[in-house]
Amino acid sequence: MGVQKYFSEAGKLQITNAIRVAETNTSGEIRVHIEKHCKEDVLDRAAYLFEKLEMHKTELRNGVLFYLAVEDKKFAILGDGGINQKVADDFWESTKEVVIAKLKEGKYAEALADGIIMAGEQLKTHFPYQDDDVNELSDEISFGK
């Protein structure tokens, strides 16, 4: 069963629903990637997956990746250049702290959903939804090994 054992069907739905809600009011794109282990620097791994998931190909460069290695207890949020130019310098760090606090309680789905909603609020502020917006990236969670 792998890493998915940490997430009930309701938990996975909570995460994908948070993505959909967050993206409702923005042209920004949010993805979640979860795996068991991260044997390298967490930001290097997140950057690799960001590219592998083609998140750098959004029109406004406003993709955000939430990355979690459950068993190694590593977590990162990585925003593309477009959003990083707009948000406050401490935004990702403060969002990460909120998520990590809940991760430490074992509330994986709730932690990710809360962080996603926070990111969605920033995306809505800086990249409001336009009538011609299309969902450029999947809302589904990607799972590694």
From TrEMBL:
InterPro entries: TPM_dom. Residues 5-118 form the TPM domain. Transmembrane segments: none annotated. It holds the Pfam family TPM_phosphatase. PANTHER family: BLL7265 PROTEIN, UPF0603 PROTEIN YGCG. This is TPM domain-containing protein. It comes from Draconibacterium sediminis.
